[in-house]
Design brief:
The chain is built from two helices and 14 strands; from the N terminus they run αβββββαβββββββββ. It is an alpha+beta fold and about 270 residues long. It has a six-stranded antiparallel beta barrel. Strands 1-2-9-10-11 form a five-stranded antiparallel sheet, with helices on one face. Strands 12-13-14 form a three-stranded antiparallel sheet, covered by helices on one side. The longest helix has about 55 residues, at about 15-65. The protein is elongated.
Length: about 270
């Protein structure tokens, strides 16, 4: 037999250990790169979700507050966690109203500025100068409607009939009369912002948390540092009333603050 004289080839233990060490280093580097990439993507996605939610809430607040009844803005709660206001359904020009010492009456004639009124309109407001007048519905500036008779023409007088015969507290300098809806409130509860409507009215208390018409507007709010989310500045001779909104969001240890001032352009 002819002996096999070829050299046998293979890996030494040192070479195997060196390869394993190199592969371990490469695997660690790759996994770290992937982990950081995934975390960056997740953080960016979460940040965009928070910003989108905040923009939606602020845009909705802007639109509604700007259509609020003059002087109806007010804050509720120990830390001003609720902003309440009364939306305007329609503004018109009245022709005449009963004001002391005139006799009481349950009708007001007015000129319509556009089409039919919404069915949710239950009250009229004339010359409300502060929130107490508005939320105390026996103050002589807010009166409940019994019926509305429209003339069909903006040049012919229409008539609103009230539930009670009354005299109003005062004349509006511009003869403005507002048809108004039920009040609306935006409230922060925990880390969420809710919008309330058609809730049981109270002159000072917060809306009931079990209200049927309660909608979630934003999440991930954080007021653990005692910040105040809502502030109001009443109207003055040089400016209209202003709502100051400070929404603070926190997610994944990242804090985002949105500050926004909303001016109410309507006048009594």
């Amino acid at each position: 037999m002819i002996p096999f004289e070829g050299k046998q080839k293979g890996f030494t233990l040192l070479e195997l250990v060196a390869v394993m060490v190199i592969l371990g280093i490469l695997a660690t580097s790759v996994s770290t790169f992937i982990r950081y990439g995934v975390e960056s993507f997740t953080n960016a996605t979460d940040r965009e979700e928070v910003i989108s939610s905040a923009r939606f809430a602020i845009e909705r607040l802007n639109r509604e507050v700007r259509n609020a009844l003059p002087n109806s803005l007010r804050t509720l709660g120990a830390n001003a966690e609720c902003l309440e206001f009364t939306p305007i359904a329609q503004g018109v020009i009245y022709l005449d109203i009963p004001v002391s010492p005139e006799p009481i009456s349950d009708t007001v004639q007015f000129l319509m500025s556009k089409g039919a009124l919404e069915s949710t309109v239950n009250y009229i407001s004339i010359y409300a100068l502060n929130s107490s007048d508005i939320y105390n519905k026996t103050s002589g500036v807010i009166e409940e409607i019994s019926s509305v008779t429209l003339s069909g023409s903006k040049d012919s007088p229409s008539t609103v009939t009230l539930v009670n015969e009354i005299v109003f507290k005062g004349e509006s300098p511009t003869q403005r009369m507002f048809f108004i809806d039920q009040s609306v409130a935006y409230c922060i509860e925990g880390d969420q912002l809710f919008r309330y409507q058609d809730y049981e009215y109270s002159s000072s208390n917060l809306p009931i948390a079990t209200a049927i018409n309660r909608a979630l507007m934003a999440e991930y709010l954080d007021y653990s540092d005692g910040e105040v989310p809502f502030k109001t500045h009443e109207a003055a001779l040089s400016r209209n009333s202003i709502a100051i909104i400070e929404l603070i969001f926190r997610r994944n240890l990242e804090k985002i603050a949105f500050n926004n001032n909303i001016q109410v352009p309507n006048v009594p």
